Write a sequence for this structure.
């Protein structure tokens, strides 16, 4: 039987295998500088961090080690957001296999994070270039791009990793999963579980449903809210059958629009589905 | 830095990512009952066996454990032959990073295998349905399909795993790698190293060169020597540019011709290239 860390690794691999996942790298779509094979290497490199999470290490530490390994390829940021979701989920799955995947177990874990976890989280940004927007000016001192230099501010203000996530919850879909007990991850896991056929195909379907449900925050950051809202409408059209998902995929890749947060949540959903016994 | 076990896992993932690899599953080609995602799960499942090899466990034991994990997906045999090549290579890479990947280190390791290793090898056949041909009648008692029931014969005759490989060297390209110190794996690793561009693409090129160089023994077993020889000619035509590799891929998939041994050797070559520092 696969361990939680192995299921997390498989979730990363299946996420990028599912196709089409409009706008994201998948096994039929890639960018010149961000290729399918970078995601393979990123998933292999994440192992150490995922194992630490499984062994009960602190969330921040496990995440930071995961990112170090993930970054050992030339594509840059492949699975930063996905790991931020997977690490507490792997911790939850290893606590007690019976109740582990109830959302309140995960909620307890993220709410119990410490200032130390927050410092490790900031440190992770030093290993890889993550696309983030400018914070509001009053949060300048907490700009994640400051990396380890933000440490003194975090300690001074006593901010835990959960607190840091709360500060971004309005602008970052991954942070919102943290603060709201992973609602979209669990919902998409239900879809994957209820669906049939190849698991990677189910993941691609779940991705499209997530994309049609609300604006992807990574698109909002990189482009603007209007672009993200347009993508929601296009994704709904793809779900309705008005346009082919493959057509939408070509369109978004061409425009360089990359719904990264939606892919991250898809990976989290795949992990939950695998832990519940969905089999490949 | 990735460990040898991690590089082996990445080699398995890159092998199936490279496309087109005519006749084999790759990220653009799959069969209904043997899909891309089965290879993802197979690679994740192989971890335990690859780690054992890295820690210096016996080759047979590490292989058998790798196969158990690999088989935990619904596609059946995905990477049996590849693991049979990778396990001694991972052992070699962990012995002494300096000299590890000289072919004589690997040769020492396979020549030092024991009767116990042979028994574990036979046991591995109980976990997954591997396509093998009928042995010559004098070797009936050693038919691998007898699994653990062959154990008494192996012990009686004092056959090591290397001896077993020698018995198949004429009919099995993986066994031949074992008995001849992995010449094709090392040669293809040189090609991958000398090539440029995405590593998965280089692997696909190396695969085609291997395929054009000599008949794939898995095709000989499943079909016949004539079919295997035709594939050599078609692969050479693809190399010469007379036919598109993509066309050959469609042709072989349609005919259900699967050069499995060539894929196994490609995975071994990828591992060697990664260990030598080729980076993704």
């Amino acid at each position: 039987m696969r361990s939680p860390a192995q299921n997390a690794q498989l979730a990363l691999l299946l996420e990028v295998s599912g196709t089409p996942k409009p706008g994201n790298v998948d096994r039929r779509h890639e960018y010149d500088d961000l290729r399918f094979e970078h995601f393979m290497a990123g998933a292999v490199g994440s192992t150490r961090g995922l194992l630490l999470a499984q062994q009960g290490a602190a969330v921040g530490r496990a995440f930071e080690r995961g990112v170090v390994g993930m970054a050992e390829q030339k594509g840059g940021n492949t699975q930063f957001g996905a790991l931020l979701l997977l690490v507490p989920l792997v911790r939850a799955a290893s606590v007690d296999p019976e109740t582990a995947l109830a959302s309140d177990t995960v909620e307890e874990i993220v709410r119990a994070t410490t200032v130390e976890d927050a410092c490790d989280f900031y440190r992770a940004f030093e290993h890889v270039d993550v696309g983030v927007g400018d914070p509001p000016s009053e949060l300048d001192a907490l700009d994640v791009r400051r990396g380890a230099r933000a440490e003194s501010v975090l300690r001074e203000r006593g901010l835990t990793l959960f607190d840091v996530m709360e500060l971004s919850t309005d602008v970052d879909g991954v942070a919102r999963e943290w603060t709201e007990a992973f609602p979209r991850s669990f919902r998409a896991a239900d879809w994957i579980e209820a669906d049939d056929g190849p698991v990677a195909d189910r993941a691609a379907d779940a991705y499209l449903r997530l994309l049609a449900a609300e604006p992807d925050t990574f698109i909002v950051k990189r482009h603007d809210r209007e672009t993200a809202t347009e993508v929601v409408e296009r994704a709904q059209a793809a779900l309705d059958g008005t346009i082919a998902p493959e057509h939408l995929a070509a369109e978004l890749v061409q425009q360089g629009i990359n719904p990264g947060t939606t892919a991250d949540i898809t990976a989290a959903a795949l992990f939950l589905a695998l832990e519940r016994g969905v089999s490949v």
